[in-house]
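Running this now, will post back.
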Amino acid sequence: MKSDDIKALDYFVGGVPAGILFKMSFDDIKALVRSSKETSEGSSLNTVAEVCLIGFVAYFEAFCKNHFASIVNIYPPVLKQFCKRRQDISLNIGDLLLLDFHSKKVGFMIAEKFDFGSAKNINNLYCDLLSITPFSKTDIKKYDRLLNDRNLLVHHAGIYTMRYQKQKFVKKSVQNRVFFDSLVVNKKDFEMWANFVETMVTKIIDSSQNALTALIKKDNFILSEENKGALDFLDTYK
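Update: finished.
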């Protein structure tokens, strides 16, 4: 690897492009689920799948935040539009001093201030930054369902709540099982959600790099070799 390539990795959290960082963790999680066994014969309950579903939602949120930060680090002028739309944004001078006012890391500080915990929030943030909305209306609804399942597992150990049944169930026979029955996550469920999330990672990477490249070209800005390398690393995933 060339010295410029090594320097280019400084623009990414942990020195690793967000897509690769996500993939490393996600591949480990998928391997755990695929090697796991259902709890008992004839049952589709899979505790490993449940825990891994919680985990990969967390990794996806971190990916969205880390990728956003790297975009800002690579091309800080992208903040011109963002600051017009988010006029209340501010940075702590003391924190900037800790970073030696280094533009390679300002993106991390900015991303840390925002909530990437829902499809709507992610769309709004990337829209304000690059005028893109990676989640379609269908994607938003699907991701909301995933978050509902994830939150039920995290906060209620998967036991159906009144709020959850109103969001998901219509049949009265199911409604009567609230606070008794629980969400079941098996390998098939996990694979379905895993495929969806991986699709969203690819969409976010592709749309953001295309938009950033187009913006740099429009601004007639000449990137340094180091920044060019970082821009090339931005879409590293598969």
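The first helix runs from residue 3 to 8. More later if anyone needs it.
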